[in-house]
Structure formats: structure tokens, C-alpha cells
Amino acid sequence: MSFVDVIVVGAGIAGLSCARALVEGGARVRVLERGRVVGGRLASRRINGRYADIGAAYLVADDPAFAAQTESWQARGLARPWTDTLRVYPAGTDARGPVRWAAPGGLRSLATDLADGLDVRLSTPVDSVDQDADAVVLAMPGPQALKLSPPPAIASAAAAQSWRPVIAAVLTYPARSWTGLHGAFVNDHPVLATVCDDGDRRGDAAPVLVAHSTAELASEHLDAPAEAGPVLAAAVGELLGITASPQVEVHRWTYAQPEKGSDAPYARDGRVWLCGDAFGRPRVQTAWLSGRAVANALLSG
User: Fold this and answer.
1) Nearest-CA neighbor of 195 among 255, 227, 241?
2) Per-residue confidence (pLDDT) for residue 262, from 0 to 100
3) For residue range 160-179, what is the model confidence (pLDDT) as tens digits?
4) What are phi and psi of 65, to 5 degrees?
5) pLDDT at residue 1, rounded to an integer
6) 219 to each of 126, 170, 214, 244, how far by Cα in Å?
7) Exposure letters 256-269 (e unless 16+ CB within 10 A, then b)
8) Cα distance between residue 291 and residue 15, in whole Å
9) Ordered DSSP codes for 264-284
10) Which secondary structure element, helix H or strand E, spans residue 9, and what is its range?
11) How far, in Å, are 20, 206, 266 from residue 117 at the CA level?
């Protein structure tokens, strides 16, 4: 590997945000990603000729810097305001909140945009923080960072993180039979945590719902996630009164959501840094801000 100033390990939103800010600040950066595509949990899967969002459900942009990034995506047709109203079960009432943003091309298209022009090496696993660079940025969940034998302060910060698993189920129906639903939080349910209308979210009116499981159901089926698909489909059908049987595709997220975040924007030990959405509220915005905070610290140091 030729020498670079900074190596970023992980091409999710935190890693790409960090790399983009570093490059704009004049640093030389290489991004190493073990997967075949960028995006991490900003993920979309192609099913029946269209992309369905299977990771993050939406963006919330209430930080000025991230709002500016979101507006840039909007200006180029990559993102759009989706809804400020989600249903809450079991009451079945609508609750208003911040505007949620979605992406017509799937949320992963936003990660692809951030990666444009960067030196990103896909299908490149890393097994150590011992890299030929001035700094190594680990943009990933703590449990994954621990596998790279990081220095003590990084290991401590990573070990302090607690993550919940989720199984996402993409449910494709013969036709739309529900109305008035954007998305829903499902409280006190044994298997179902959220459900989103992906056709409404993406703006193409496809008869597709995406359900996210509870951590309890995901934990039971981590070794065989396909078995959770029919369980989630049945729960969604009962919740929304859908009688048709959907085509079901599932995706397992072992580290889906941090249970509590650090007050700091990142962790550091010497030339090794750790960032991501565990450093604050578990949001896409948090991951983006965490990556930029590392970049700003490196550029100013």
C-alpha cells in the first residue's frame, strides 16, 4: 500500500463524511471498506427492479451543517422531504415531529454521492489498526473496532458501547391495500418495532412495506434471519389489516442501533480514532457529524 496521510476504515456515513471533509481540507485519504458497496447502514437493496431501504429509515436534519448537506442533496434531486407525521401504535394515532427526509434513489445513493471522487477500496477487509498512515480512523460500531486490536482508549470506548440487533423485512405486496400511512412506531409489540411505507417514502407508490424487528426477535434469529421474515409479515398484516401475502426479503443487522451514546463526538488514542453514530443520538446525522468532527480535529492538529 502506498503511503497516505489518513486511512479511514469503513465506508458508511461516518467514514465517508470524515474522508470527504479531510479531502476538502487538503489531506490525502484512502477509505478501506470490507463490503462490496459503500453506505453501511445507509443501505438499499434492489428487489424486483427497484431499491428498498433496508437500513436507516430516514434522515432528520436539525443540525445546521447537516441541514446544509441535506439541502445540497435536495438541490440535486437526491433527497426530498418525506413527512413530519408518523403513526404510533398500539393507539394508532398520528404524531407530528421533525421533518423526515428520504431519497428517491434509496438512501445508499446519498453515500454514493459522498464517495464520489474519493479513493475508496471496496472488498478490502482490515484486520489491524497497524496501517501505513499518519492517522487511522475507525468508522464502525465498537464491537467491530475491537476485532482490530485498537489501543487502550479506543478499546475502552468501543467496549462501552452497547448495540441492539435488528432484522429488516422488505414486504412486497401484489397491490397497495393500505392508505394514509407514511410510517409507524410500534410500541410494546413482541416482534415488530417499526414499519415504513417504502413506496411513499421513495415517492414511486410501490406496494412495498419495510418492517424492522424488535431486538428480542432479532436475537432469536441472528443465525437464521430468514425465519423471522414470515413472523414480521404476519405481524404487519395483523397491524394494518392486510390480508394479501407478500414476497419477503430479510436482512440481518447484528449492530443496528447503539443503546446509548457518548457525549463526546469521537474517541482517540494517539493516531487512532473511533467515530460513528454511537457518539450521540443514534441518527444518520450523528454519524455524519462524528466523522466531520474527527476530520476537523485532524486538520486543525
Assistant:
1) 241
2) 82
3) 999 999 999 999 999 999 99
4) -70, -45
5) 38
6) 26, 19, 9, 28
7) bbbeebbeebbbbb
8) 6
9) SS-EEETTEEEESTTSSSSSH
10) strand 4-9
11) 9, 32, 25
The C-alpha cell at 46 is: 434492489
Cα-Cα end-to-end distance for the chain: 25
State the amino acid at position 137 in one-letter form: V
Q: What integer best gives the mean pLDDT of the chain? A: 96
Q: Mind listing the pLDDT tens digit for each residue in 232-251?
A: 999 999 999 999 999 999 99
The answer to whether residue 3 scores a pLDDT higher than 90 is: no
Q: Please state at what angle helix 284-300 crosses helix 64-75, rounded to 10 degrees.
A: 110
pTM to 2 decimal places:
0.95
Q: What's the pLDDT score for residue 2?
A: 44
Annotate 190-241 with three-state secondary structure: CCEEEEEEHHHHHCCCCCEEEEEECHHHHHHCCCCHHHHHHHHHHHHHHHHC
Percent residues over pLDDT 90 in the chain? 96
Residue with cell 474522508: 19
The x, y and z cell numbers of residue 88, run together, are: 404510533
Q: Which grid cell is 37?
A: 458497496
Is 161 strand, coil or helix? coil
- d(CA 137, CA 29) in angstroms, rounded, equals 10
Q: Determine the average pLDDT of the residues in 75-99.
A: 97
Q: How far apart are CA 292 and CA 27, in angstroms?
A: 13
CA distances, 270 to each of 46, 249, 259, 261 (Å):
41, 43, 27, 22
Alpha-carbon distance values, 40 to 56, 72, 115, 199, 236 (Å): 10, 21, 12, 22, 26
Confidence band, pLDDT 50/70/90 cuts, at residue 4: low
Report the amino acid identity of residue 239. Answer: L
